[in-house]
Amino acid sequence: MSAMIGIVGASGFVGSTLCERLYFSGNRSFVPFVHSPGNAWRIARLPIRLHSLDLLNRAQVFEAVSSCDVIVNCALTGDDLKSRGLRNLADAARAARLKRFVHLSSIAIYGRDPAPGTETEAAVPAPGDNPYGVLKLDQDRIIFELHRAGVPCFILCPGNIGGPYSLFMLGLARRLAHGPLPLVDGGRYPSNVIHVDNLVEAILAAVGAECGAGERYFVNETRPVPWRQVFEDLGRLLGIAVSYVDVSRDDVVPLLRSTEPRVGVAGHLRIAASGEFRAALSALPAFRALNDAAMGLFGKLPARYRHGLRERLTWPIRVTKADSGPSLDDRYVTVQARRVYHSPQKLREGLAWQPALGYVEGLETTAAWLRFAQAVPADS
Amino acid sequence: MRPLRLAIVGCGRITEDSHMPAALKADGIELAALVDPDVGRAGVLKRMYGCSCELATSLDAVIDKVDGALIATPNHTHVGIARVALERGRPVLIEKPLTPRHAEAEELCALARTHGAFISVGFMTRHYPVVGLMRRLLEQGFFGRVTRFSFEYGTRGGWAPHTGYNLNREQSGGGVLLVSGTHYLDRMLFWFGSPRAFSYADDSHGGVEANCKAKLEFDGGLIGTLFFSKTVVLANRFVMETERYRVEIPWSERKRMTLWPRERPGVVMTLEDSPAAKDEDCFELQLEEFARVVREGGRPSVTGEEGARSVKLCEDFYGARARLAEPWVRYPGAAAAA
Question: ipTM of this model?
Answer without folding.
Answer: 0.92
